[in-house]
Amino acid sequence: MNTSSAPSKHMIPYGQHYLDEEDIQAIVRQMREGTLTQGATIETFERSVAQYVGAKYAVAVTSGTAALHLACAAAKITTGDTLFTSAITFVASANCAKYVGASPQFVDIDPDTLNMDPADLDRRCKAAGRVRAIVPVHFAGLACDMSAIRRIADAYGAVVIEDASHALGGSFPNGTRVGSCSMSDMTVLSFHPVKSITTGEGGMVTTNDENLYRDLLRLRSHGINKAHDPLLLAEHAYTDGIQNRWYYEMQELGFNYRMTEIQAALGVSQLKKLDRFIERRRELVIRYDAAFADSADIRPGQRSGRDMSGHHLYVIRAPFGRGCVSRNSYMQRLYDKGVISQVHYIPVPLHPYYQKRGHRPEDFPNALSYYSEALSIPLFFALTDAQQDQVIDTIRSALH
Fold it and tell me: Which of 14, 254, 280, 315 could be joined to 301 by an S-S link, Cβ 3.0–4.6 Å?
């Protein structure tokens, strides 16, 4: 986007982290008094997240992308396998299949929820015949229809890995929290700065399966044995029946996806504020809904689940270029008035990498229709009512 015009002095971003003095002091204490890596604070953060979402286990990693990769690796997804994910998501939801040699395939979205359409998923699974994994994406924080997706996955013997990078703090219709893995094998979370809580960069995998948990721990750290893993080379591992103090084994090919203690300290502090963060985001969403309720051209991208969503994004849809300005011109007008917007997302099959591999964007009409109209506008905890009113006025006045 061309931003050569001078913007207003006080720009309002589409998303922004929030840190208070408690967060800062948590980081300072960790740096002064604690370890910097592979220590107790990471374990505290993992336990806290697992307890919050209602899962048995959690494994902290360097990013949501790393979490997706590890989840695929732990599930033993490999060359020749097929993984289905949403056509509207960040590319990492598909790339995780490529990382392990599998084939990512795409599912069109439901035009109302903007999530994976279970009916389209079922149709495409039938056509594929053999499905190894399904990665539903809880877009903008709204949970997918996981009961329907789980039924489809069970019919094909597929692993389910929820991409909940947008949805920490959200819940399902039955009241269980996103991340509980009540209808999946694993759930992936992200702690990028614009997400509901942040560790700077960071991610996590939750699961209720102890075997997956131990695989995740091992894969996170070079494939080296962890506590309770049996040692495979006893002649090297023991002296007089006692394990050698220096000894460890690389038992499979793993990665260095370890979160630092500094990041975990921030995560522990941020998690204490999560419910407050989500409540404020919900208030802002309801104000947006009311502001655009009588608009002929601007409508909310999602209309349901306001009391369940993690509210990572607020997306509007508008007929850009059809009786109003182009989206690019509109974004520039907003920018010139001090409002930063973004598009989430370019359909993954539209990217050159995937088109070169045979994916056709026209096979996903709902995703393309959404993409032609979508715009994410500011939504974050510290957004004030006055700032939001400025955003609303600018959004309404700049379209024509």
Answer: 315
Tracing tokens 């070079």 back to the chain, one arrives at 222
CA distances from 274 to 260, 281, 360 (A): 21, 11, 39
Q: Which helix (H) or strand (E) holds 216?
A: helix 210-220
Which has the closest alpha carbon to 395: 281, 295, 323? 295
Final residue of a domain: which of 243, 271, 299? Answer: 271
CA distance 234 to 97: 35
Tokens standing for residue 136? 């539903």
Map tokens 């949501």 to a residue.
Answer: 64
In the chain, which stretches have pLDDT less than 50?
1-8
Output the pLDDT for position 323: 84
320-359 pLDDT, tens digit each: 999 899 999 999 999 999 999 999 999 999 999 999 999 9
pLDDT for residue 6: 39
- Kindly provide the residue ranges of all beta strands, DSSP E only, lying in the chain, ordered along the sequence: 57-61, 82-86, 103-107, 133-135, 159-163, 186-190, 203-207, 238-239, 242-243, 299-300, 314-317, 374-377
Do residues 202 and 263 lie in contact, with contact meaning Cβ atoms separated by under 8 Å? yes
pLDDT, tens digit (0-9, with 9 covering 90-100), for 133-146:
999 999 999 999 99
Residues 209 and 69 in one domain: yes
CATH number, domain with residue 342: 3.90.1150.10
- Give me the CATH number covering residue 198: 3.40.640.10
Output the DSSP codes for 268-302. Answer: HHHHTTHHHHHHHHHHHHHHHHHHHTT-SS-EES-
Q: Whole-model pTM above 0.70?
A: yes
Range of the domain at 150: 21-271
Measure CA of the first residue to CA of the last residue in the chain; give whole Å.
19
Measuring CA to CA, which residue among 384, 371, 202 is closest to residue 283? 384
pLDDT of 4 reads 38
Residue 151 placed within a domain: yes
